[in-house]
Each structure stands twice: as structure tokens, then as C-alpha cells.
Amino acid sequence: MDGDGASSTGATPSEEMNGNLMDFLDEPFPDVSTYEDFHTIDWLREKSRDTDRHRKITTKSKESYWELIKSLLDAWSGWVVMLLIGMLTGTLAGVIDLAVDWMTDLKEGVCLSAFYYSHEQCCWTSNETTFDDRDKCPQWQKWAELMTGHSEGAGAYVLNYFLYVLWALLFSFLAVSLVRVFAPYACGSGIPEIKTILSGFIIRGYLGKWTLLIKTVTLVLAVSSGLSLGKEGPLVHVACCCGNLFCSLFSKYSKNEGKRREVLSAAAAAGVSVAFGAPIGGVLFSLEEVSYYFPLKTLWRSFFAALVAAFTLRAINPFGNSRLVLFYVEYHTPWYMAELVPFILLGVFGGLWGTLFIRGNIAWCRRRKTTLLGKYPVLEVIVITGITAVLAFPNPYTRRSTSELISELFNDCGALESSQLCDYVNNPNMSRPVDDIPDRPAGPGVYSALWQLALALIFKIVITIFTFGMKIPSGLFIPSMAVGAIAGRIVGIAVEQMAYHHHDWIIFKNWCRPGADCVTPGLYAMVGAAACLGGVTRMTVSLVVIMFELTGGLEYIVPLMAAAVTSKWVADAFGKEGIYESHIQLNGYPYLDVRDEFTHRTLATDVMRPRRSEPPLAVLTQDSTTVEDVETLIKDTDYNGFPVVVSRESERLIGFVQRRELTVAIKTARQKQDGVVSSSVVYFTEDNPQVAEACDPQPLKLRRILNLSPFTVTDHTPMETVVDIFRKLGLRQCLVTRSG
């Protein structure tokens, strides 16, 4: 305190000191609200801070028109954020779809009329195409034809093969290099991390601008390189990055981590909505699979975001058929009760594949973490891409992109299909109605297609285990669906041929007359895809909704439900975790799953830290700790906060103070408030302490940052209750007390 000030105002030193204290305390501490990286947020605190903010705005809005307008804008900001997220996500998804189409075709050939056209677009503009050879047109040339002039023969095949592998390697090398150099967080699916972030964990930079940019670019490269991965999971990550980007524009969301989590839940819904063209499925996916805290308001907002995103994607129309996804199908034939048996068998297959995949993939990822393999991510990606490309090219079913494969497997054989799977022997004297073609015996094309599909199935099963979790963006939905669709189509053709050749058997007698169309193999592919996806991710409701939004088949909800539930039961019999939960555990993220049961019969005393044998708990006293003591305590420990007690003897609890707020407060006080030195007393009481003489160092009052109502349980609370409290309220810490 300076002497002049005291003499000129004529106030006593203690009075002026109190005035100073009050002034300092009214200014808000800078940056107190934020958390350190890799820490958990305190949901209760965030919620109460938002309520305070809301109350302030409401009281202010009664004062003037300007404040009223500001409060209205604040209320609308949530919907504005959703609109922006939906529009950006839809646009990015459309761009990704178009780019993937073009680059996948680039591995095989190029369009001469305009090099930026994909194969399909190239042949649309051509006048020379016929209906039978709709894939062949003079404007589209394979690489060998372009370079040597020969389109057939061994030399051309080898050249095409070589260039296919070369392009694949180039794409994947670019992808992994970009991820490594610019945004290490852009690798993988992103859903495990997003689940962790939504449960209240903080990973700085995981949803940043760089991650968004690099993830979008490398996702196109990774999918185009022909690796066994999809773009669905990463699209959820991309959407959440968009959500985070727009949160930073509104202080309501950027300053409150709890509110930001609500926006990210809705963004995840928008991501699934554009990935599958399934807005309702997206909302349910966010609710069932990724979100931790999902209030009703978020449900409406995510519905709106998903709607806007799907609408934007529909406006871009990336596939040119007014559909949001590549594999849209419509079936016309009903299904029969007896078919539930193969459907349930497909469900069992899906559950077994899910278990196999999770075990194999987690073992491989653990190996990657612990051995030399993890030190060479680029080499690993290059090797896997090389193996994939070399094995994929000879088989026409694995050469094309996975979503095209699924699309062909889902398709029903109409009179106009030219694919090998539809090479049935036609009855010459049969009249040809267009839509309802009776069951026919399979021709040679179908049998060779079945062999190729069986090989493709084995290849996909093995290669996906090694692909998922590499250092490039990789989704899991499409490969799992491909495995299921291949298995389903094989089963479907088998059932169809049985029904044709043995239509006098008792099971076929009731529903399969000769000359009728009774079995749709495409439907089996769809059910198989749902079963395998369910086995890996353990979704049920959202999965069925996504599948029927995807395929437009409302009457097939029962088969899909049967398969999804069976696959979940079978997979749960071998282990409760889905692939995302397993990856969360593998990476060691702090995630309290709401679905886990807690079975140990322990009490809070048995679990609390410190144990009875350890050194005592680090505490602050309400009016006898000096600034120096506090600073040494902060330096020597790494706790997130400290309980404040009456005195060391009585240890009655007064409140709890966060470590970060304590450091910020002391730092600020040393800069702004004169007279705060190492020997100043820090006090947390209501009334000011008596200053004995003027020469005593000035005390520092920190009541403002003290949480007076920390969450406490008694020492005899059963542990399951404690775990439940942590889960439901999203606590950061909980204090154990005995009689206060």
C-alpha cells in the first residue's frame, strides 16, 4: 500500500485494503472456465453456469429493446448453428462422393472428352452407347488402350493391372503422408474418440480446422485407393469438426463445454444422415451409439441438422439418380415366414463375424502399439494397400469400389440387368412381364459369380481386420456391410435354386408355385449386411432404421429386426463390447459406459484415494494457509483440485477449489493487487480476517472460486451408487466424508 494514497483519502489502512479486495474480486478471472487438455469436464458446473448466463440475459432483456433483441438472437443461435452444420456437412459429403467416384475410376482409365468425368458420367454424354453395353463408350478408355492402342490381350491386362496397383499405392501414400505431417488426429474412424469427447473428455485439436481439412482430403484418397474401408465413420468425425467450427462463432457454445457437447451430438446425427441418406437413422444413431447426455432439446436440434444435411446433399445430387446413396433398391415381392430361418442364420453369421473381427482387430492393434510395427505407419499402409490391390484386381467383385459392390449385391435381377449375377437360363416360350420374373434355373454366369463372391468374401474378411485402425481415415460400416451382403447373396441364390428345383417340398409347397417369383436374393444380401453391421457395432434400433431408409423397403422391417437382434445376441454371448468400446479401452480413454453393470460389493472407503495407509489428503485450510504453501502444494501434487477444511485438526469440509482456478487467481492477484507476497494468508471465509498491524502482508481473499457445494458421499456408500452418481451427473470428483 502506498502511503500517499492512505493520507490523501484519509482512510484507515484496513478499510482501504478491504475496498481493494472487493474491486479485485468483482473483475472476472480470465480464462477460469477452460479445462486442461486430456481432462474431464464437470457437467454439473457447466450446467449451472449456463443457467446463470440464461438468468442474466432474461433479467437484462426487460431493461431495453436492444437487450430484448440480443436475448432473442441468443435463443435462436442454437438453430442457426444447426443450419450451418447441416449445410456444410451436406456440401462436404457431396464433394467427397463426387471425388471418390472420379478417383476410383481413374485407377482403371480416363475420360477423353473431359478428364474430370467419372466412367458413368463420361458415358452419359456419349451418343454411341447401346443399352446392352452401357459401360462401353468410345470416350472412356482404359489406360492400356490409351497407351498401346490394344484393349484386349495379355499385355493390355498386365499393363492395366500394373497401373491399377500403382494408382492405389500413390493414393494411399498421399493420404498417410498428409495425415502424418498435418493432422495426426485425422486417422481412423473417429467414432471412438467422439464417443469419449461426448462423454465429457477433452482432446484439444481433435475437432480442429486442420483435422477437418485433412480428414476430408485424405478420406477421398483412402477410399479411392481401393482399401477395404468406408467413408461413413469418418463422415461423423467430419460433421463433428464442422459443429466445433461453428461453435466457436457463438460465445454461448464456445465458452461452455457442456453446451458444446449438445451441438456435437446433433452434428454426429447430421454425419450419419449424409453418409447413408438416412436422417432419422442418424438421429437414432447419435442417441443410441455416440451420445452420452442427450436432452430432448438436442433430439429436435439433431433432427433439424440431419434434415438440412440430407436436403443439401440431395441438392448436390452426387449420384445423378436423385437418391442420397449409391445402393438404393426397391423390391416388390413379399417375404414368407419360412424365410425367417435363413434370415436368422444370417444373423448368427453376422454375430460370429462381429466377434471374430473385434478380437482379430484388437489383437492386431495391440500388436501395432507394442511392437516395431507402430514405428512405421507409412510402410504399413503401403504394404497393406499393395496386398489389397494385387489381390483385388483379378476378381471383378473386389476390383470395383465397395459401395458399388454392395449396390450390385442388393439389386434385384430385372429383365434389363446385365450383371453376371443375373445370368439365368431363360425359358424361351415364357411370356416376359417386366417386373415379375419367375424363378429360373441358374446359368453358368451365376455359378462363376458364386465362386468369385466366395473368394471375395474370404478376402474381405481377412483384409478388413488388418485395415481398420491404420493411420488413415477408415470407416467400418461399408466393409462390414460388404461382408454381410456377399454372404447374404450367396445364401439367397442357394435358397432360390432350392425352391426352383424342389418346389414340391413341404416348406416350399405353401408359398412357391412353379412359374412364380418367390425368392429375392437381393433381400438376403440386405439382411446379411444389417446382421454383420450389427455384430460389429452392436447397434439395433438405429441399424434397422438406417437399413430401411437406405433401401426404401418398409415391409422388410421384420426380417431386418430378426437378423439385427440375433446378431447382437450371438455377438454379446462372446463379449459385451462393440468395436468402438473396444477401441476406447485399447486407447485407454476414460469412458464410463452407461450400459456396463457394476458388480463389486465394495464401499466408498475401499476405493477412495488416499488409502488409510497412504500419506493424508492434500487439503487447504480456510484461513491459515499462506500463498507460498498453496504454491508448493500445487507444484508437488498433480490433483485437479483441493478440498478446503476449517482447520487441520477438525478437517470439517467447507468446499472444494479447482487447481486451475487457484493458479490463475494467485497469478492474477500477484499482478494486479499490491501487497500480495509469498507470506500473505489465503482465506476462504465470508468475513475479512483481522489485520493486526499495518506491517502484516496483505491477505488474499479467494472465496469467489470456492465451490461451496461439492458433491459428497459418506464413507459407507456402496460403490455401485457412487459409480451411478458419476455416470448420471457427469461428475469430475466426489469427496468422501464422515460426519462432515
Automatic annotation (TrEMBL):
InterPro entries: CBS_dom (IPR000644), CBS_dom_sf (IPR046342), Cl-channel_core (IPR014743), Cl_channel-4 (IPR002246), ClC (IPR001807). It is found in: Endosome membrane; Membrane. Pfam families: CBS, Voltage_CLC. PROSITE patterns: CBS. One of its GO terms (cellular component) is endosome membrane. One of its GO terms (molecular function) is voltage-gated chloride channel activity. Residues 608-672 form the CBS domain. Its main location: membrane. The chain crosses the membrane at residues 76-100, 161-183, 203-223, 263-287, 299-316, 336-358, 378-397, 449-469, 476-495, 523-548. Keywords: Antiport, ATP-binding, CBS domain, Chloride, Endosome, Ion transport, Membrane, Nucleotide-binding, Repeat, Transmembrane, Transmembrane helix, Transport. The keyword Transport applies. The keyword Chaperone does not apply. Gene3D superfamilies: 3.90.1280.20, Clc chloride channel (1.10.3080.10). It is a multi-pass membrane protein. Belongs to the chloride channel (TC 2.A.49) family. This is Chloride channel protein. It comes from Oncorhynchus kisutch (Coho salmon).
